[in-house]
């Protein structure tokens, strides 16, 4: 019986795996797992009901993705009947202007995804390697791709444009936006939980090691902070966020920095890590006594609050703010600091609710309501995988 859908959510250093039981059009998450490529040795963890597994992998080199996946599927097979797998769905970071929705993975789509690798060098090649490895190991299992950029295709043209020659825009140098699967998850969940607010003017803060802000109206993307690449917008754990292009010209021309060194600087040595010189993890910075750590947190929360107000202009107002992802869901102090910077807009935080990670974290008198909501990208991927399968069968 083929009634399982697996999802692979590939990040820059981790892969989150979801297992969903499929009954017609309904999906039930039965297990979740992950591979931590930053760990040494590589680590595989899994949660299935009350069962918890944490296993060190024998595969030594994360570059040998076939060997890693072969071992991971071997571990999975002792807990999940892989013969039941109906399809495997993948999160693909960049779909460019080619993909406006999920697709069945075939030679043509693989080539198109590969052609977009230059736009997302940190994520796209790793995801492609995973797709190809699964094809090699399980050639009969169908695979689908869900794109982070697709959700933002509803942004107006004026929002998507940089102030550069039109020919360059037409060549693909434009604002694409990312974290789309997360925003899609939040939009759907929030509309179900708060139908009175779900179609109004919302701003969602996806705050994790990668972080961005998205303005939603009628559940659709109107504006977002990440643009051409996953570097832009607010500062992140190790990524710079918005930076004057003149700084980059200076580093390249005056300091003779190579493009590889510049890439490493902007992606891996900037953000919270760069400012604090301690860590890119907010939890470590919040307990640190150093002025550099304090400044990193202040910069982070100030830029987030500023981006929220900028996107309120794109919306022509703001009814609610929703915090999600690792930091947004689990770090009340970060939420509190951002909320204090938005007090002038009429946002009144409920400190007790915020500390408890409650759903609604503002007082009843607050003009702007704030919420905390757990994102579920894997469920969006599984749902889109099921949609693609149904369409292909027809």
Give a written overview of the molecule:
This protein is an alpha/beta fold and 394 residues long. It has helices at residues 65-77, 107-115, 124-137, 157-160, 166-170, 180-193, 245-253, 259-268, 271-276, 282-286, 291-315, 325-330, 332-341, 351-355, 377-393; strands spanning 4-10, 14-23, 26-36, 43-48, 51-56, 85-92, 103-104, 142-147, 201-207, 211-217, 220-224, 320-324, 369-372. The chain folds into 2 domains: 4-147, Nucleotidyltransferase, domain 5 (2-Layer Sandwich), CATH 3.30.420; 196-372, Nucleotidyltransferase, domain 5. It has 15 helices and 13 strands. The strands form 2 sheets. Strands 5-4-3-2-1-6-8-7 form an 8-stranded mixed β-sheet. Mg(2+) binds at residues 9, 377.
Q: Provide the number of structural domains.
A: 2
Unreliable parts: none
CATH fold description of the largest domain: Nucleotidyltransferase, domain 5
Q: Give the count of helical stretches.
A: 15
Quaternary structure classification: single chain
Number of strands: 13
Beta content comes to 15-25%
Quick recap:
The protein is built from 15 helices and 13 strands. It is an alpha/beta fold and about 400 residues long.
